[in-house]
Design a protein that fits this description.
alpha/beta
């Protein structure tokens, strides 16, 4: 009898992978499901990006293996993007590492820094992959609670009371998913100070900073942040390129060199055409984000109406492509989403999948047309 790896006992199939099978089954039975649960952009990438990729396909060497560090012009575009949008100086030669999506980076970073038995600080609520990767590697998740009353910012008094002797990494995610809360400069400064004091590498996962956000921030804006911090970023949300699988890791060369050791065992370089298209995306001016956010603002306004009809409460002053809502008194997250799915054929995400602090909340995605949101409103 074949025995599978023990590490698989520490994780389950990703919630959306499993739940979407159920949703697809309902659709096959003729149910008119409206999916407002998944953060997969439904809009097109910029036309100039598609043309740049198409034109590159006939370049010499376009279909060969590519460098693990990416094309020089790709890394330069990342550096310019950070300078122009975050006012952060990045050396394109040794402070940028291309990734096949920032989700890949979560695994690479964890493999580079963690030994079995090490501990990792993980936000609750937060992106489930942080804890699943930690568990797969035999490390121990230590959850730090975020609360609505403090705008989902870390409680540094509570963090200072922890035994930090085994903690190697701290995952941070601002603008925060799923709540949409923005970090403050004060929060980023405190995170850097905390990391330096306890010798904990702070990793900010930053894919949402241009969605419904007029003041994008990077943790690398803090003075000497590179001494202890890394930042993951992505073109998935900012440029509607989720399926391209393009991300980047930024930080000091000593950190990236170790992550690169892992990456070189996992892939054989990013496809040339994808790098050329992404380079073009990173060169676009801020008019792109203005147009993109005009669409999301209209959708967000409609989702607010939908939430109100459901008796939910929410914060209007958030960023990212989700609306995080508190459920009516007495209803759990799972009860509410199942009621919507089976009675109204509307699929949304339960807050409980993001951790115990997400119980009592549901999450709507803005990656769905105004027409479909209006249809959902009419069903309620």
């Amino acid at each position: 009898m074949i025995q599978f790896a023990n590490r698989l006992q520490t994780v389950q199939e990703y919630y959306f992978s499993k739940k979407l099978q159920e949703v697809r089954q309902l659709i096959s039975e003729g149910k008119p499901i409206i999916n407002i649960g998944i953060g997969s952009p439904d809009l097109q990438p910029p036309a100039s990006v598609l043309k740049a990729m198409q034109d590159s396909l006939f370049d010499t060497g376009a279909h060969s293996y590519q460098s693990y560090q990416g094309l020089p012009e790709f890394r330069q575009a990342v550096a310019n993007f950070y300078h122009n949008n975050y006012e952060v100086a990045i050396n394109p030669n040794n402070e940028v590492l291309p990734l096949m999506g920032s989700k890949e980076g979560i695994m690479h970073i964890s493999l580079a820094f963690l030994n079995e038995g090490d501990q990792v600080l993980i936000p609750n609520p937060g992106y489930p992959t942080y804890s699943s990767v930690t568990n797969l590697l035999g490390a121990e998740p230590i959850f730090y609670n975020l609360e609505e009353a403090t705008n989902w910012q870390p409680n540094f008094e509570a963090l200072e009371k922890l035994d930090t002797s085994k903690i190697k990494l701290m995952w941070v995610n601002y603008p925060h998913m799923p709540t949409g809360a923005d970090a403050t400069k004060e929060t980023f400064q405190k995170l850097i100070d905390f990391g330096k004091k306890h010798n904990i590498v702070i990793v900010n996962d930053n894919p949402y900073s241009f969605i419904l956000n007029e003041h994008p921030q990077s943790i690398l804006q803090i003075e000497d942040a590179k001494d202890i911090a890394l930042e993951l970023n992505s073109v998935s949300k900012s440029f509607n390129m989720a399926g391209w699988r393009v991300g980047m890791l930024l930080g000091k060369p000593e950190f990236l060199t170790e992550v690169l050791k892992v990456k070189t065992q996992m892939d054989s370089g990013m496809f040339y055409g994808i790098q050329k298209g992404t380079t073009k995306a990173l060169e676009l001016d801020k008019n792109w984000f203005t147009q993109l956010n005009n669409t999301y603002k209209k959708r967000q306004k409609l989702v607010f109406q939908l939430a109100e009809k459901l008796g939910c409460t929410y914060d209007k002053n958030t960023s990212g492509m989700f609306v995080w809502c508190k459920t009516p008194e007495g209803k759990t997250s799972e009860e509410m989403i199942d009621e919507l799915l089976y009675n109204k054929h509307i699929f949304v995400a339960p807050g409980s999948i993001f951790g115990s602090q997400g119980e009592g909340y549901i999450r709507f995605s803005l990656c769905v047309s105004e027409e479909k949101i209006n249809e959902a409103i009419s069903r309620i």
